[in-house]
Every structure is written in structure tokens, then in C-alpha cells.
Amino acid sequence: MKRMAILSAGLILGSPALALAAEHNAGYRGIGMLYFSFMAAILIYGVYDTFGKTAVYVTSPVILGWLYWMLPAN
Q: What pLDDT, in 10s, does the model give residues 27-38?
């Protein structure tokens, strides 16, 4: 088991392609998606807490679509 852990760590750390390393000119889309995901969760919970379950079914796609279109370009 220890050998397999060492081998997999060596392969991942030895090759940036396996570690999914971004290039030096990468954009902010990944961190923006993470930030907007947390924002969407908070907004959807606020709608659920204020208006109930039925309103969440209507506003969740609107909130998710709105935040998706706000993401920065690649």
C-alpha cells in the first residue's frame, strides 16, 4: 500500500498534466465559478427561508442562470 501511494504521488507530482496544472495565462473562470457557487447557495437558501419551497422552484433556475452569465470569459 505504501509503494502504491509513493508511485501515485510521484506520477502526480512528476507530471503537471496529471496534476491538472493551469497554464501561466489562465483566466479567473475557475475561482469565479467557485465564488458564484457559494453566492448561489446563499441566495437560494435565503429565498427558501423567506418565501418557502415553491418559490425556490421558480427562482433557483433564474439565480443559477444569472450567476452563470456573470462568469468571466476564458
A: 777 788 888 889
